[in-house]
Design a protein that fits this description.
Layout lengths: L3 H27 L25 H48 L6 H33 L1
Length: 143
């Protein structure tokens, strides 16, 4: 039976691995030509080739299907990136509107001022989180 401390260490280690994977994928988004990090659960073995008894037509069909799969993954990745960028842009506009509306409110109490400040801060922060999640999903599709 594992102790609470061992479970906590395992959880921290897993969170660290996920963060390392996330930032590795975020890195490849912004650096063209870089390779994605290897997922900890990925098999280190080379992929298996088609059986030797396949005909040329079967091998060509296999190659064509693989190309279609890669093309579909690239399309999904572009769609996810575009949606994440739209979300970020929308959140920046909403945050700007919140800040602009705050300027006209001179007689607000402390609670209302804190509410405006929190809304102005958390709107772009949540957009960055959504953008990061979109990039991570796009990178996961590619891997």
């Amino acid at each position: 039976m594992t102790s609470r401390r061992e479970r906590a260490r395992t959880a921290v280690r897993a969170a660290f691995e996920e963060a390392k994977l996330f930032f590795g994928y975020a890195f490849i988004v912004f650096v063209p030509g870089s390779n994605p990090p290897r997922h900890p659960h990925a098999s280190p073995d080379a992929p298996k080739l088609p059986p030797a008894n396949w005909t040329d037509e079967e091998c060509q069909l296999y190659i064509d299907e693989a190309r279609l799969d890669v093309q579909h993954q690239q399309t999904e990745k572009r769609d996810i990136r575009a949606r994440a960028q739209v979300m970020l842009t929308t959140a920046i506009v909403v945050a700007g509107a919140i800040v602009a509306s705050y300027v006209g409110k001179a007689g607000l109490c402390v609670v209302e001022s804190l509410l405006y400040i929190a809304a102005g801060l958390f709107t772009p922060v949540s957009a960055v989180v959504v953008l990061g999640a979109g990039f991570l999903a796009a990178a996961h599709i590619t891997a």
